[in-house]
Amino acid sequence: MERLSSIESFVRSAEAGSFSAAARRLGLTPAAVSKNVAALEASLGVRLFQRTTRSLTLTESGESFLKSVSDGLATIQSAVANLGRGDGAPTGTLKVSMSVVFGLDYILPLLGDFLGKYPHIIPDWHFDNRPVDLVADGFDAAIGGALELAPGLISRQLARVHVIAVASPRYLAAHPPVTCPADLRALDGIVMRSLRTGRLHAWTLQNAAGEQAPAELTPRMTFNDPDALSRAAAMDLGVAYVAMPHAVALLRSGALVRVLPEWHADAGAVSLYYASHKLLPAKTRAFVDFIVAHFKRPHIAACFDATASS
């Protein structure tokens, strides 16, 4: 087991590019990780890393060793995790990343049922709008949109997400009727700035007939959080393009209504990501199967698909 710990320290350091990042993932100190790697190098009789004060890079021998041991380490760890309980029930800490609003509205409400079915799993859920590196950050799974599908990852699509134009009934009553997408330019635009690029989001609207039109708004205010868009629109401040999952509760309450309900934009898919281990840990498999099954239920479509609710 001591040799296995040294190999894991080496693999995680290679994945993360530093002893400090590997230490955070392993729950060790950077000194302990460095010591484990040094012991492995001494045992093998080769240098695995070139070390400087600013970087950690694999040697040729290190690259070859990493290719040889990575899959085997994952298989061994998965086998150990799956035998964590004598009765074979999924067990262990389940580290999952998800965006704040989506996680709170659509994943957290499932936690009671999930724990009722898998009482020996300990959720370690991170609600954060920043993109994560599934492997380097040590996550078992992540839920989101447009996560980079790096080698060794699998994605399972949960739903297609549509974007719609929304405003409060009071705001629309105080302004000229909107009969086509071009009419939106005359209204106050509540627009979204991308967290990744810093640019304003640009959408292309489409309808059931296959027609397309630019989703142009005249910016009156700008936010970088999708929930802020729908809340500002509900405050009678203007028109916003909001993803269905963020708007559906306010639509159902009547605080918002759809503008041009026959038009929508496609924002892509929200997916569940996890590592493609040959022997997936039972805790991760249980979570994947549970979430995928939930999103296949018919009533969930109305929370994401603009055509299902129009």
Overview in brief:
With 310 residues, the protein is α/β, with parallel strands linked by helices. The chain is built from eleven helices and 13 strands.
Would you give an account of this structure?
The relative contact order is 0.15. The strands form 2 sheets. Strands 3, 4, 5, 6, 7, 8, 9, 10, 11, 12 and 13 form an 11-stranded mixed sheet that branches. A two-stranded antiparallel ribbon has the order 1-2. The mean pLDDT is 87. It has 11 helices and 13 strands. By secondary structure, the protein is α/β, with parallel strands linked by helices. It has 2 domains: 2-82, Arc Repressor Mutant, subunit A; 88-310, D-Maltodextrin-Binding Protein, domain 2 (3-Layer(aba) Sandwich). Helices cover 38% and strands 25% of the residues. Helix 1 crosses helix 2 and helix 1 crosses helix 3.
Q: What class would the helix/strand composition place it in?
A: alpha/beta
Helix residue percentage: 25-40%
User: Roughly how many Å is the radius of gyration?
Assistant: 24 Å
- Which topology of the largest domain does CATH recognise? D-Maltodextrin-Binding Protein, domain 2
The CATH architecture designation of the largest domain is 3-Layer(aba) Sandwich
Number of spatially distinct domains: 2
* SSE order, one letter for each helix or strand: HHHEEHEHHEEEHEEEEHEHEEHH
Count of extended strands: 13
Separate helix tally: 11
Oligomer: single chain
Contiguous low-pLDDT stretches (5 residues minimum) are none
Taken from the alpha-carbon principal axes, the silhouette is elongated
Ends: how far apart? 59 Å
Query: Strand-residue fraction?
Result: 25-35%
